[in-house]
Amino acid sequence: MSNRRSPDKNRFLAKLNTATYEQLLPDLELVAFIRDGDLYHHTGVIDYIYFPVTSIVAMVNVLQDGTSPEVAAIGNDGLIGTNLLLGVQSPTTKFIVQSAGFGYRIKADLIKKLFDSDIEFRDLTLRYVHLLMSQSIQIAACNRYHSIEQQLCRFLLSCLDRWNSNRISLTHQRVADLLGVRRASVSEASAKLADAAYIKYHRGCVTILDRKGLENEVCECYQVVKSETDTLLKE
């Protein structure tokens, strides 16, 4: 197995104590996350808990008109399916693969048993659930009060933090859908960032050329979520 795909490249799994990590290891199954795939579409229930490693999954809220803005993103910083651990059997949002890659899954009942029996694991998981809630709150505020350019910078930097490369496969339409804005607005904002030599966009792929430049342009929302994440998952 390639080292970059090993389970401990997921920061949540890496945060577990050695005994718990080794307990889970035999039951972790390497899976491919296919772009645009809906993780719970086929069953409609949370039958597996997922740990992305080289993939990003968007947690989206589908509205009546079909739009599906992102309310949180999960990559190598976390796990998917935490609703089950709070007593909810079916996902209340959709989990759509934003960036294809690999990760691990484990049967949900095994994680549920561990959650019920292991105080340390339960505490870490609940703190991660709080982190997801904080991320959702910050995204909602950002989308309401900050410019498209700032939102795009936040989005791209957040992807970098959960990704293993400075090249991200994303179309302007996909970004617009996740931000809940018009495609033309994303194209205009991207052009400004490209003119500043912060990014390069070519055929559905964004390459980050100057991370520091994006950090100088982004609103405070990015750092709020990043600081909470780093505090929780620091080694």
From TrEMBL:
This is Crp/Fnr family transcriptional regulator. GO terms for molecular function: DNA binding. Residues 146-212 form the HTH crp-type domain. Keywords: DNA-binding, Transcription, Transcription regulation. GO terms for biological process: regulation of DNA-templated transcription. The keyword Transmembrane helix does not apply. InterPro entries: cNMP-bd_dom_sf (IPR018490), HTH_CRP (IPR012318), RmlC-like_jellyroll (IPR014710), WH_DNA-bd_sf (IPR036390). It comes from the Bacteria. SUPFAM superfamilies: cAMP-binding domain-like, Winged helix' DNA-binding domain.
